[in-house]
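Field reference: sequence -> structure
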Amino acid sequence: MRGRRRLGRPFGWLWAAYAVSAYGSGLGFGAFPLIAVLVLHAGPAEVSALSAVGPAVGALIAVPLAPWVEFRHKRPVMIGMDLARCAAMATIPVGYALGRLTWVQLLVVSVVVAAAKIAFNAAGGAFLKALVRPDDLLVANARFESTNWSSIAVGPPLGGAAIGLFGPVVTVIADAFSYLLSALCLTAIGGREEAPRPRGEAPRAEEAARRTTGEAVPSAATGDAAMRTTADAVPRTTAEAIPRTTAEAVPQATGDAATRPPGEPAPPPARKGGPRRTAGLLDGWRHIMGHPVLRALYLNQLLVAGLIMATEPLLAVLLLRRLGFPPWQYGLAFAAPCLGGLVGSRLARRVVARHGRSAVFRTVGTLRAVWLIGLVFVRPGVTGLVTVMAVELAIIVNMSLYTPVLAAYRLEHTPKHLVARTLTAWSVGQQAAIALCTALGGLLADATGPRTALTVAGLLILATPLLLPRPDRTPPASSAEPDATARAGTAP
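Structure field:
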């Protein structure tokens, strides 16, 4: 049997930072809906709005942060986002202790946490890609995924017990403290981070390489990507620049430089803060939508994540209020099935090696969607508890196998200078989908009841496999460099 692959001490600290934060969030799983129901006596519409509006507004705030994150050192950004989340979460127990906790305060905190989470994940993805080898990305993401599910398996039961013993905000305190510990772990990584590439400027080494190969050097005034001479021009099929060297791609300073037809003159330089700045905000979406496989995976993920997460506040109302489940059973219903996440994440690498990435995307991606309808049949007592646990187990096993494969593929097929913006675009789109589905689910539940809303979500998600990429478009798993697709000049 092969030994455990070692990814180095810096990755160990990064993993530790992720783990301590994940376990803190596991303790606080569902804390906001639970506080809204038990402390503020909120109804289905208010609980759903809390789960929908906060992340949606946070996602909007995160959009202009993406270019800022892209051109900053990533580790300080991650530390700053951890500290921001710690400070925001700490205001909730203070408000509760003073008797001034309100629904609006919960909403504001959820906005801050959502925006900081997106910025943290964007910086973290770029940092991970620079930290480990390309063929270790699947292993690294599988470890994060197993940590995530183990934290949810352990956290909610302990959180539910802690709430029963110490009050409804104790898990929020633990979550806030976990962000502080995460920041300390990131600080312990040490070392120097590679300097981010300035906008519109190519490193001197790359300029020299282009001169020796007969390629034009980009203009400093426009920041446009260098164009090959007529003799060796290569057509571009994606929204990313074709790399000129084996090491990395030519910097793409603007969102349309890679999509401009060959021979078409570059547009004049725009003033600071003008349309070119806006284009930079959209580069992540342009890369995703210009890549046929990423586009299909993205659209599928929006609907699957939105419909699954929309059931969380609905189940909180159904289980806690309508069916009378105590908080510890509510936590147990979501915690025990998360052990299946350990199974799926540990199988990811073996399944990809044996069956290929295409099979994972199509088969496992479909299996994520077929179980949600089972939540409609939840009843009071032990039968209802077992039903929720069985449905969640089936969903989680497939999600935990699928997610690290998706995450590794996304990093492999995103150039280094677009990672933060691409991950931000992905997260913002996903949060927007979750917010929209959650809001609509809340309105439907308020009008017809939570069980009807769960039925609609369960039926709609059955159509999402139609958006998965076709087998002929999905390349087999490989240990190629992240920009291999771009170097070949063809879309997968």
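Note: Residues 200-277, 476-492 have pLDDT under 50 and may be disordered.
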